[in-house]
Design brief:
199 residues, 6 strands
Length: 199
């Protein structure tokens, strides 16, 4: 079973360096131009005869990329809401500096327990992982080659689940805009085969 995890290209939220979870930010001009680079890289990683099931987060920054992948693989995407980025609630649209100035007491509590603290009006990393893990269970049970277009945080949660790693390892991986991660998963065992960071 081959699994490709692909992060959306640069969004306005990324450019502004704000917490961009459920907010439906558009891509920047750079992000739009990066789509071609992702397709070029991805084409080198698959065979023309390969068959994949394509899943995508419903947010526009992901569907624009998954639309392009549809054209490459000749399959329509399946939009899955479990692949949306973490709901940052009160933090949405704010920079870390904004939060330190506006709600320092909330930031302090969050930093004390980054896994379990539920952001006001949002979710904790643990809660996010629980919904993503149900998606992982579903794709493993189908045992088919898949492409998943999602977000930086969600990619890391997917990776941890498929490699059977604890959520505490979340911060040990870097996923750039347009990043492609390839995982081989068979008989309950997954290993990291490739990480391509888009230049």
């Amino acid at each position: 079973m081959r699994i490709f995890l692909i992060r959306h290209t640069e969004s306005i939220g990324n450019r502004q360096k704000v917490y961009a979870g459920m907010t439906d930010f558009d891509l920047t001009e750079k992000g739009l131009s990066q789509i071609g680079g992702v397709i070029t890289q991805f084409t080198k990683m698959i065979e023309p005869t390969s068959h994949f099931t394509l899943y995508s987060s419903p947010l526009r920054r992901c569907t624009l990329l998954s639309d392009a992948i549809e054209g490459l693989i000749g399959e329509s995407k399946i939009v899955d809401h479990r692949l949306q980025e973490t709901n940052f609630g009160l933090f949405e649209g704010k920079t870390y500096t904004d939060l330190l100035n506006e709600v320092p007491e909330v930031v302090e509590k969050w930093n004390e327990d980054l896994i379990h603290f539920q952001i006001p009006n949002g979710e904790s990393l643990k809660q996010c992982a629980e919904r993503v893990n149900t998606f992982c269970h579903d794709i493993r049970s189908k045992n088919e080659d898949v492409i998943v277009v999602s977000h930086g945080g969600i990619m890391k949660v997917l990776l941890l689940n498929l490699l059977h790693l604890d959520l505490s390892h979340f911060w040990k991986f870097y996923t750039s805009n347009g990043c492609i991660i390839e995982i081989e998963y068979n008989d309950g065992f997954g290993f990291l085969k490739n990480i391509i960071q888009l230049n």
